[in-house]
From TrEMBL:
<dbReference type="InterPro" id="IPR018821">
    <property type="entry name" value="DUF294_put_nucleoTrafse_sb-bd"/>
</dbReference>
<dbReference type="InterPro" id="IPR046342">
    <property type="entry name" value="CBS_dom_sf"/>
</dbReference>
<dbReference type="GO" id="GO:0008773">
    <property type="term" value="F:[protein-PII] uridylyltransferase activity"/>
</dbReference>
<dbReference type="Pfam" id="PF03445">
    <property type="entry name" value="DUF294"/>
</dbReference>
<dbReference type="InterPro" id="IPR005105">
    <property type="entry name" value="GlnD_Uridyltrans_N"/>
</dbReference>
<dbReference type="InterPro" id="IPR014710">
    <property type="entry name" value="RmlC-like_jellyroll"/>
</dbReference>
<dbReference type="InterPro" id="IPR000644">
    <property type="entry name" value="CBS_dom"/>
</dbReference>
<feature type="domain" description="CBS">
    <location>
        <begin position="160"/>
        <end position="216"/>
    </location>
</feature>
<dbReference type="Pfam" id="PF10335">
    <property type="entry name" value="DUF294_C"/>
</dbReference>
<dbReference type="InterPro" id="IPR051257">
    <property type="entry name" value="Diverse_CBS-Domain"/>
</dbReference>
<feature type="domain" description="CBS">
    <location>
        <begin position="224"/>
        <end position="279"/>
    </location>
</feature>
<protein>
    <submittedName>
        <fullName>Cyclic nucleotide-binding protein</fullName>
    </submittedName>
</protein>
<dbReference type="InterPro" id="IPR018490">
    <property type="entry name" value="cNMP-bd_dom_sf"/>
</dbReference>
<keyword id="KW-0129">CBS domain</keyword>
<dbReference type="Pfam" id="PF00571">
    <property type="entry name" value="CBS"/>
</dbReference>
Length: 621
């Protein structure tokens, strides 16, 4: 084979979907290609070509624009333009221009049809929709699971070894003990109709019945525990462990759709924990000093690495890391209350930003605030200022660095009674100025961490009542959401960072993840949806007219794919002893990953255009 043909063959062998062709077919393919050179500013497709070819960009760059001049897509090295063979539809009347000197390979449509018969994977590339490719991509971005870490992403229902065991509220203590013995379990749930009203454990039988000399004929409800916490069946194992550790309990009722599903025990968790050194939940709970907590938190990057090795989804990794942050925060608040005494009035500590959305990584700063009862008096702020300083300083010591914008409870502005918070949000919503929009990514994403949840729920209810169907405010939010746009093409110099610190990298958080997070927030506020997690917001919005099921699933898959690329990048940094960041070198991506990433960007672009049209955002330009 001639040297030039060998070079073409080697190029094709590294580019999807040609890399899926049989070796002999690939060896012969270069002979079927025509080669065309376009000088910069030349029209594309070439004026003297017909519609019997698809085009593969060997080098250079091409921009495709619609009749209005709007950029539709950018083509770079390895990209295919299949329109002439009627494989995809682009905007009618589009035209292309070579923005660099460009070398093209032309493959006859007839030859393309032959090739599609030789490889199912090759054919799939041209027959699949973006939606189908993204779903396949999401399953292909995760590494092979590590058995040592696989338990980390297990959901609670997968841990249950036995069906739910329960008795009626009117049963006797003897009947409860008999039911436990028959089923060989250490606890039984008490229900009144479909409602869970209590549980009885072996410990309850010993302490409240036998030790007290109570007759076994007495009603079981006399010895049951009624101050119950429960957990959803689809919660992660790490969430269950943190909850059981915090409550000092060995049994946790599991509910599905509000109904009894099963009972999770400490033994169920013990079977899964094995010797994973990254499991820091117990150490956090046992910590009595900030230094102890900081020591436990040093293993947080290892936790993220273990989860990544276990093929956990980005959704599960974010939930797990956020659970740890919640646990650290609660322990610090408990330490503060032990030092300062009981609070003078009720309050709730709330998290903002990625912690509230359950989307944290081990590389996160802190965003938090205090919502205090309206009974607060001016002199009470001395207590809450001390509490906030203790906790935010402690979080900083534990690796959650201070918020650069000072969006923390230690800032008096974000340590206010409920009525003041309602006034804040009323002002931001009625007059969405640049400051309000800047704060939206933090304070329109809140979740309670410790204290009186009723205060948070009152504020959230007030916010959503004002944002729902508020066209002017939502239009401003949508306009702000479009400030972060994904690139419409390949990774070339103009989309990479050149700041001397992160040269030749790509900010995958702000160019890929933030746009979807912003879109989901706009949809949730517009529909008055209480969900905070981005995936939960998209799923909730799909139940309304604001988001179609197809687009919602596309956005969900795009988010998962981009987030997993980010997690894999950070996992590699952790392995190499480098602090994790969001600056991804494009050279670290395979050609297939680049192709799928472009698909994800197209999904984001499509939804951003929908918002732009829906809220007539041209008037904000």
């Amino acid at each position: 084979m001639e040297i030039e043909l060998v070079e073409i063959r080697d190029f094709l062998a590294q580019r999807p979907p040609f890399d899926a062709l049989p070796e002999e077919t690939l060896n012969q393919l270069p002979k079927s290609l025509d080669i065309r050179y376009l000088r910069r500013e030349s029209n594309f497709p070439p004026a003297d070509s017909d519609d019997s070819f698809i085009y593969l960009v060997r080098s250079g760059a091409i921009e495709l624009r619609g009749e209005s001049g709007k950029l539709i897509e950018k083509l770079g090295e390895g990209d295919i333009y299949p329109v002439p063979c009627q494989l995809i539809d682009l905007e009618q009347g589009h035209n292309g221009t070579a923005v660099e000197d460009t070398l093209l390979y032309l493959l006859p449509c007839e030859k393309l049809r032959e090739l599609r018969k030789t490889s199912a994977t090759f054919d799939q590339h041209f027959s699949e929709s973006i939606r189908e490719r993204l779903k396949r991509a999401v399953g292909g971005t995760r590494p092979t699971p590590s058995n040592n870490a696989a338990h980390m992403s297990v959901e609670v229902h997968e841990l249950l070894k036995k069906p739910a065991v329960f008795i009626n509220v009117n049963c006797s203590i003897q009947q409860a003990a008999k039911r436990m013995t028959e089923n060989n379990v250490s606890s039984v749930m008490i229900r009144d109709g479909d409602k869970l009203v209590g549980i009885i454990t072996d410990r309850d039988l010993r302490k409240r019945c036998i030790a007290e000399g109570l007759s076994s004929d007495q009603p079981a409800r006399l010895i049951m525990s009624t101050n119950l916490e429960s957990i959803p069946h689809n919660a992660l194992m790490i969430h269950a462990l943190l909850l059981m550790t915090r409550l000092h309990v060995h049994h946790l009722p599991v509910l599905k759709d509000g109904k009894i599903f099963g009972m999770l025990t400490a033994s169920d968790l013990a079977r899964q924990q094995n010797t994973n050194s990254a499991f820091i939940a117990t150490d956090i709970r046992k910590s009595n000093t900030i230094e102890d907590l900081a020591l436990a938190c040093k293993r947080l990057p290892d936790l993220q690495l273990h989860l990544s090795n276990a093929s956990a989804s980005a959704l599960h990794i974010g939930e797990s890391v956020s659970c740890i942050t919640d646990s650290v925060t609660r322990r610090l608040i408990e330490m503060a209350e032990e030092k300062l005494g009981a609070p003078p009035v009720p309050y709730v500590w709330v998290a903002g930003g990625s912690q509230a959305r359950r989307e944290q990584t081990s590389h996160s700063d802190q965003d938090n605030a205090l919502i205090i009862s309206n009974k607060m008096k001016p002199e009470h702020d001395t207590y809450f200022a001390a509490l906030a300083k203790f906790v935010t300083d402690g979080l900083n010591t534990c690796g959650y660095v201070y918020c650069p914008g000072k969006a923390m409870a230690s800032n008096p502005k974000w340590r206010r009674p409920l009525r003041a918070w309602c006034e804040y949000f009323n002002g931001w919503i009625d007059k969405p100025d640049p400051m309000a929009l800047m704060l939206s990514s933090i304070f329109f994403d809140l979740s309670p961490v410790y204290g009186d949840d009723n205060l948070f729920e009152a504020l959230q209810g007030s916010i959503l009542a004002k944002t729902k169907n508020n066209g002017i405010f939502i239009a401003y939010m949508a306009s702000n959401a479009l400030q972060h746009r994904p690139p419409l093409g390949f990774f070339r110099i103009f989309v990479l960072i050149h700041d001397g610190k992160h040269d030749d990298t790509f900010d995958i958080k702000h160019r890929g993840i933030v746009p979807i997070t912003d879109i989901a927030r706009v949809l949730a506020l517009a529909e008055g949806l209480p969900a905070t997690n981005t995936t939960d917001r998209l799923r909730a919005a799909m139940q309304t007219s604001s988001l179609s099921e197809e687009m919602g699933e596309n956005l969900e898959d795009a988010l998962e794919f981009i987030a997993i690329l980010r997690m894999n990048h950070q996992a590699e940094q952790i392995r190499n002893g480098v602090p994790p960041d969001n600056y991804l070198p494009p050279d670290s991506l395979s050609e297939l990953e680049r192709t799928h990433l472009k698909d994800a960007f197209k999904v984001i672009q499509s939804m951003q255009e929908t918002l732009e049209s829906r809220y007539q955002l041209g008037r904000f330009g």
